[in-house]
Input
Amino acid sequence: MAEEPYTWQEINSQPQIWRATLEVFAIGRPALGGFLETAGFDRVLAVGCGSTHYLAQTAATTLVYRTSVRACALPASELWLHPGPFLTDQTLLLAISRSGTTTETLRAVERFREVCGGPVLAITCHPESTLAQQADFALVAPDAQEHSVAQTRSFTSMLLLTQALTSVLAQEDDEKALERLRQLPDILEDLVGRLGNLPQGLGSDLDIERFFFLGGCMLHGLANEAMLKTKEMSLSYAEAYYPLEFRHGPMSMVNEHTLVIGFLSDTGLAEELHVLKDMRQLGARTLALVEDGPKHAAGGPHAAGGPHADWRADHVIELRSGLDEWERGALYLPAIHLMAFHRALAKGLNPDRPHNLEAVVKL
Output
C-alpha cells in the first residue's frame, strides 16, 4: 500500500485511543457522578443509529445485568417516530452518536424532551457537536474521531465509556473498575501480536461467501456490529444471530462456503460450543473468539476428558484477558475489523469509502 487507508490506521490505533479515552473519562468522573445523583431516573432508554444502535443494545443489556436500573435499546428513529410505549417520567435517555449530528438521533432527543422532559446523557466523539450541546451531560471520546465511514475505534472507545458508566451506576469501586478497563489496551496489543496472518487469511479467502456472527447476551450487539462492519467494508453477505437461535432456520444457509464466527461467553459457553460443532458438521468453517481457547474451545490437553474434549474449531482466537465477559467486550471486534479490511482489499474495494454510504446520515 503506497498510502495507508484511514481505516487501517484507525483499526490499529485502538490501544492508544482506548488509553486516551479512559483518561478523559477519569477526569470527568466527578462531574458525571454529580449529574447521575440529581438526574432522578430508574430506567434507561439507549438509542443510536447503525453501529451506535448496536452499541445501544450492548449498553442496555450490560445495564440490565449489572445494575438495578431497567434498560432497553431502540433505533433512534423508533423513538422519534413511535415514542409512546417506551417513555416514563423517570427515564434517562442515553443517546449515542459518533458525530453527534445524526438527524434521527437529534430528532429522538427532541421527541424525548417533548414527551417526558427527562434527562439526556450523550455519548459521542465530538464535544462541540449538536448532540453534546443539547444533552444534559456528555461522555466524550475526542481522540476516537475518524476519517473513515465505517466505525472502528470510535465504536470500541464509546463502548468503553458505556462500560465505565455502568460501573458508576452499579456503585462499584471506581478506581478498581477503571483499573480493570485500563488493562484492555495492553491486552489488545498482546492479542493483535498473537493473531498473525489469521484475519488477513480469512478475509482474503474469497471461497468464503457467507459470514454468520453468533453472540448472546451483551455479545449480541457486538455480533450485530461485526456483521455490519463486514457488510460495509467488504460488501459481503453477513448476518448475526443469538447462538442457539441459529439452529431455528438460519442454519439452512450453511454450506462449505460459510464461515460461522462465535463470540463465546463464559456463562453460555457449553451450549454455544455445541452450536459451532453442529455447524462444522454441516460443512461450515468455524472461528471461535473465546477467553481461554486451550481450555474451552480447542479441546486441548487442559480439556482432556471434559465436555469439550472432542470438539475443535477450525480457528480459535484466545482473548486471554483475565477479565469477566462484561468487561472484555471491546476485544472481540478488532480481529473482525482486520478481517473485513483485508476482504475489502481482496475484492478490489476501498475500505475508506463503502458503497452508497456517508459517515453521517442527515435527513
Q: What stands out?
A: The chain has two domains: 6-181, 189-346. Strands lie at 43-48, 70-75, 91-97, 120-124, 137-140, 210-215, 237-241, 258-263, 285-290, 315-318. Residues 258 and 357 are 26 Å apart (CA to CA).
